[in-house]
């Protein structure tokens, strides 16, 4: 059999296997994975991956690219380039921070047009659940949303309202009927608003004050409440950005009771602490906030135990003017970390190298589980015949220090600038096409393998 492309001599990693092999690709799909593929004639292009690991392209389930409407904050082109550069081959864009938000068909179509034109990788779109749109959920499912996203506390964006309990309950009944899934930002409005007001009235406006104003108990309260709605409605539930293993444990217990629920955490909760936001300021501000080192270590234990299903970057960028300190008050800065380009680096440096997290586990939480949870498996999330030819080719031994110039973001700020990492995505392929190689994005029209 003749292929469009053969990747030879690499170490292939899936969620359950690690082995040396060749991969034959035709029409964007994996046709064959075997010990050795003999090249017939000269028509086969080859990539020699000797010394490198080939993993299923990462699926970033949680990004805010802000286009259309707030493209000056990021954009689908710059955002998707940053993902390609780091081995992510599919992203799910959140329904908010873009304007119009993705809360009805016209909002969906407006974003899809931009994404079709501009994304350098594969993508899907989240729909939103807001108090105003329960009747539009069905048309969004028909549009092909990957699921719905709701906030239990204010989102920071005026055009995307958070859901009160009645909206959540009604919405979840509807989403269950539509056999879709609800992803939830779970923090308690009551607790976070009261504490934030109190802190600021008392003039307590440091990074630590901000973190203390959104305590773990506020996440736990919201998670318990939304789990009870999931139990009552039968709605599939996904908790995004759990900042603590205490939150993860609530999900584990619910799974044991038979609730159809999964949980995501983000690279920043696995690598940064309150000390980092104290030092870096608003660049490291996010909601829920960073926790202490003990929590970081506990979260790694939860991850190693298989209690964390998915890693999403929650890339939520904003212009530098919104990520600086105003009046010495960190409460006023934008909450959101630019991290889309660093997920794999953090998991390799902090997980694989420092904490012995197996590569298969990293593949599972960055690709296989997201694909399974959101209905893309086995087209995505694995390396086997029939799947999309989406890969990250990784050099585990390449050391680098992240520089501002390396970032593809519209606004190249990141809490990880200056940090050293071991392990790098050296090439990314989407449906058999190289999209990133040797530090550069390959423009669509110039794709060649050799
Ligand atoms: N609107 C928005 O992107 N909010 C995100 N930022 C953040 O730090 N947490 C979020 O939910
Ligand atoms: Zn959120
Ligand atoms: Zn988010």
Automatic annotation (TrEMBL):
<comment type="similarity">
    <text>Belongs to the metallo-dependent hydrolases superfamily. Allantoinase family.</text>
</comment>
<dbReference type="GO" id="GO:0006145">
    <property type="term" value="P:purine nucleobase catabolic process"/>
</dbReference>
<feature type="binding site">
    <location>
        <position position="314"/>
    </location>
    <ligand>
        <name>Zn(2+) 1</name>
    </ligand>
</feature>
<feature type="binding site" description="via carbamate group">
    <location>
        <position position="149"/>
    </location>
    <ligand>
        <name>Zn(2+) 1</name>
    </ligand>
</feature>
<dbReference type="GO" id="GO:0005737">
    <property type="term" value="C:cytoplasm"/>
</dbReference>
<dbReference type="GO" id="GO:0004038">
    <property type="term" value="F:allantoinase activity"/>
</dbReference>
<feature type="domain" description="Amidohydrolase-related">
    <location>
        <begin position="54"/>
        <end position="433"/>
    </location>
</feature>
<dbReference type="InterPro" id="IPR047604">
    <property type="entry name" value="Allantoinase_bact"/>
</dbReference>
<feature type="modified residue" description="N6-carboxylysine">
    <location>
        <position position="149"/>
    </location>
</feature>
<protein>
    <recommendedName>
        <fullName>Allantoinase</fullName>
        <ecNumber>3.5.2.5</ecNumber>
    </recommendedName>
</protein>
<dbReference type="InterPro" id="IPR017593">
    <property type="entry name" value="Allantoinase"/>
</dbReference>
<comment type="function">
    <text>Catalyzes the conversion of allantoin (5-ureidohydantoin) to allantoic acid by hydrolytic cleavage of the five-member hydantoin ring.</text>
</comment>
<comment type="pathway">
    <text>Nitrogen metabolism; (S)-allantoin degradation; allantoate from (S)-allantoin: step 1/1.</text>
</comment>
<dbReference type="InterPro" id="IPR050138">
    <property type="entry name" value="DHOase/Allantoinase_Hydrolase"/>
</dbReference>
<dbReference type="InterPro" id="IPR032466">
    <property type="entry name" value="Metal_Hydrolase"/>
</dbReference>
<feature type="binding site">
    <location>
        <position position="185"/>
    </location>
    <ligand>
        <name>Zn(2+) 2</name>
    </ligand>
</feature>
<keyword id="KW-0862">Zinc</keyword>
<dbReference type="GO" id="GO:0000256">
    <property type="term" value="P:allantoin catabolic process"/>
</dbReference>
<keyword id="KW-0479">Metal-binding</keyword>
<feature type="binding site" description="via carbamate group">
    <location>
        <position position="149"/>
    </location>
    <ligand>
        <name>Zn(2+) 2</name>
    </ligand>
</feature>
<dbReference type="GO" id="GO:0008270">
    <property type="term" value="F:zinc ion binding"/>
</dbReference>
<dbReference type="Pfam" id="PF01979">
    <property type="entry name" value="Amidohydro_1"/>
</dbReference>
<feature type="binding site">
    <location>
        <position position="64"/>
    </location>
    <ligand>
        <name>Zn(2+) 1</name>
    </ligand>
</feature>
<dbReference type="InterPro" id="IPR011059">
    <property type="entry name" value="Metal-dep_hydrolase_composite"/>
</dbReference>
<comment type="similarity">
    <text>Belongs to the metallo-dependent hydrolases superfamily. Hydantoinase/dihydropyrimidinase family.</text>
</comment>
<feature type="binding site">
    <location>
        <position position="241"/>
    </location>
    <ligand>
        <name>Zn(2+) 2</name>
    </ligand>
</feature>
<dbReference type="GO" id="GO:0050897">
    <property type="term" value="F:cobalt ion binding"/>
</dbReference>
<feature type="binding site">
    <location>
        <position position="62"/>
    </location>
    <ligand>
        <name>Zn(2+) 1</name>
    </ligand>
</feature>
<dbReference type="InterPro" id="IPR006680">
    <property type="entry name" value="Amidohydro-rel"/>
</dbReference>
<comment type="subunit">
    <text>Homotetramer.</text>
</comment>
<keyword id="KW-0659">Purine metabolism</keyword>
<keyword id="KW-0378">Hydrolase</keyword>
